[in-house]
Amino acid sequence: MADFVIEPPPVSTVPVAGGGLFPVRRVFCVGRNYAVHAREMGADPDREPPFFFTKPADALVTQAMVAFPPATRSLHHEVELVIAISHGGAAIPVASALDHVYGYAAGVDLTRRDMQDEAKSLRRPWDMSKGFDESAPIGTITPAARIGHPASGRISLTINGKLRQDGNLADMIWPVPDIIAFLSNLVILKPGDLIFTGTPEGVGAVERGDSLAADIEGIGGFAFRVE
Predict the structure, then answer these.
(1) Which helix (H) or strand (E) holds 55?
(2) Hey, is 68 helix, strand or coil?
(3) What is residue 92's predicted lDDT score, i.e. its pLDDT?
(4) Is pTM beyond 0.90 here?
(5) Which one of 82, 129, 186, 203 is CB 3.0 to 4.6 Å from 107, fit for a cystine?
(6) Which domains does the chain have, with CATH numbers?
(7) Average pLDDT of 107-130?
(8) How many other CB atoms sit within 10 Å of the CB of residue 87?
(9) Which of 17, 50, 21, 10 is nearest to 180 (CA)?
(10) Which of 69, 91, 90 is nearest to 137 (CA)?
(11) SS3 assignment for 83-146
């Protein structure tokens, strides 16, 4: 047994449909992967290869309550398809990328937008606008062995029952195999890695007391409340 000088932190996990827990190693996120959302954020999606940022594994939230974070007056929602990696590798070919996927989930990338905008204007990193505590609510992972690899299907988010985001997985600029292949040329992917794949248009503010529900056709959804 290792001689740790402090108690090791717990492993972050996500429930799996049908039972069991998926242990999480790292959380990668793709930025601006839907053309309309990229344009609403002031970018030109036709000229941009995929880029990535990260969140801590313990930023994942699987309970029904999320704390409104400090240091922001503009918390935004971004509903996303999440890929769960079961087999790692480097320089993974697009043709075999789906062989590395365990399953999929719906997730929400919460963003301190005012903090991010300030960091961008000052040309500073914006890690703290994305990687804060409880910034990655996520639903149950559904194994690909059960549902296959959805390349299309509605992805949506409601707040207090009103539709805020409504898109289709087919509208991703970089689909799942391309994301895996591209990212594996930047880092060696490992079992337990999660990849948030970007959000469709319609991102907006979340207030204290709001109830959010995310859903992806063929995968499922989840709901949580911000307090």
Answers:
(1) strand 51-55
(2) coil
(3) 98
(4) yes
(5) 82
(6) 13-226 (3.90.850.10)
(7) 97
(8) 13
(9) 50
(10) 69
(11) EEECCCECCCCHHHHHHHEEEEEEEECCEEHHHHHHHHHCCCCCHHHHCCCCCEEECCEEEHHH
